[in-house]
Design brief:
mainly alpha
């Protein structure tokens, strides 16, 4: 499994694509947080990274499919998947190896954003931000990206075209992230049903964790969704 993980990690950074993807993510979030007047946290009047945790999922909706779109589609297109099958690896080891490689790349992209925390903390006039709440919000953001990565990996296992995988995974992430919340807003649902429909979406659970509130219900939800899409990916590879 770790051999596959290291291969994927090296392949991602073997060209400028990996570096550019991370730089673009940091540049976009930095501009949104400190430059653009409508979203700048410098205009809020209080020390908070709430705007970052609100905007980051939308940027990651494009970044993570770009990272994972070639995971299996490129293997299918180039014919190297047959070589991979000849190795003493189970489908689970292949899936987990590629998935953990994507998580490591995502972690590398998120770690530099702690500069935002220290910058706001330094600029704060009084006590600054709550370290515990911020750490909890980062855990929620990482779990959100882990779900997006599992979805993108699953979409990549269905096609040999990387562009199709990118579009499909981006749309699937968008749909699961905000689609259930949009459906729950329809007034025709009976009282109480809208709440349970909203609970099916990622946004419901991420909103709780982005406030620094970590509950067992939210953790179980994220782990369950990740396992569902990884199992779907494994079954798809097993059929091949």
């Amino acid at each position: 499994m770790w051999a596959v993980c290291k291969k994927e990690f090296r392949q991602f950074f073997s060209s400028l694509t990996g570096y550019i993807a991370i730089i673009v993510f940091l540049l976009v979030t930095g501009l949104l947080l400190f430059v653009f007047p409508d979203t700048s946290i410098l205009d809020f009047g209080y020390a908070s990274l709430d705007k970052f945790f609100e905007l980051a999922p939308w940027v990651l909706l494009l970044l993570i499919p770009a990272i994972s779109m070639r995971s299996f589609s490129e293997e299918f297109r180039s014919g190297t998947f047959e070589i991979l099958q000849s190795k003493p690896l189970t489908p689970w080891q292949v899936v987990n190896g590629k998935y953990f490689a994507a998580l490591i790349v995502i972690a590398i992209a998120l770690i530099p954003t702690w500069i935002y925390f220290f910058s706001v903390q330094h600029l704060a006039a009084q006590s600054g931000m709550d370290m515990g709440a911020t750490l909890g919000a980062y855990i929620g953001l990482f779990l959100l990206t882990a779900v997006f990565a599992s979805i993108a990996l699953c979409c990549s296992s269905f096609t040999s075209n990387a562009i199709v995988a990118f579009i499909a995974s981006g749309f699937a992430c968008f749909l699961i992230y905000t689609g259930f919340h949009a459906i729950s807003s329809i007034s025709s649902f009976p009282a109480g049903a809208d709440y349970y429909i909203d609970m099916l979406g990622i946004d419901f659970h991420y909103r709780n964790m982005s406030r620094g509130l970590i509950t067992m219900r939210d953790l179980i939800y994220f782990v369950s969704v990740i396992l569902f899409f990884l199992t779907l990916t494994r079954n798809n590879l097993f059929k091949r």
